[in-house]
Automatic annotation (TrEMBL):
Record's protein name: Nucleoside-diphosphate-sugar epimerase
InterPro entries per UniProt: Epimerase_deHydtase, NAD(P)-bd_dom_sf
Organism (species): Mucilaginibacter gossypii
Entry-linked SUPFAM superfamilies: NAD(P)-binding Rossmann-fold domains
The NAD-dependent epimerase/dehydratase domain, residue ranges: 3-227
Amino acid sequence: MKIVVTGSTGFVGRHLVPELLNEGHELLELTRDTAKSENLYGAATQKHLLDADQDGLKNALKAFQPDAVIHLASFLTSADDYNNVTKLIDSNIIFLCSLLDALKETDLQLFINTGTFAEYFKGDGILKPAYLYAATKTASRSFLDYYSNVYNFKNVNVIPYTIYGGKDSQKKIIDIIYESIGAANPVDLSPGEQVLDFIHIQDVVDFYKALIKQAATVPHNSTFQLGTGKGSTIKQLAATIEEASGGKTKINWGGKAYRPSDVMYAVADTELAKAVLNWSSNVSLDQGVKIFLGDK
């Protein structure tokens, strides 16, 4: 299959692209940093440098004629800061519209859009964005619906929950907890009672691969919540790390107050993935933490 990938050099992209290549797919990366892409994938992928040239993007996509798009790129921040609004809209809405417009002269079958569990502030499956980033991801769905209905391709929204594992330049909560072992001073964290669905990066990669394999039968305008379906508090994650590592974390629970936008319950409803794709996660939290520690 011919697949366009955005965000190919990001956290999920760096783990997904090599596996798509191993399965024989032909990939076109849309990237703002071709040097970084070259370092990661060399000549294994085609590359188009994203700039302000809309005609250039249209021509590249028309020449490639993709069967599917995996849209991973976004500007992510949990800060409630007006100064980020322009960048959020540019990255998460305007770029999406630019991409969708450029796809009009292709025979695209499936557009896979990636959202965030923070679109569901109350954790009940009802769209109510927790912060500005999540609001732009929710708003982007309307633009995707418009283009997919007018230009006759299927769209799917994927909502990853709390991803961990693998190599990432940005620290996640699991890294902060692990690095507190042996620290000179306790690390200030929230009270740690948030219930989150921790999903290993390998499960995330396997899910996107399953979507691609079943592109012909996946329902139009469906939303898949990508997680394990099991919740753990952050304190329970810390206990799992202690048990697997044999070390003692040094955390001042409650040293930081909860923020008004903190999502207190975020556990994926995995029934649609099971019913439509026959997919469920394979890596338990205990197993994933051991893999995480083995990669250190």
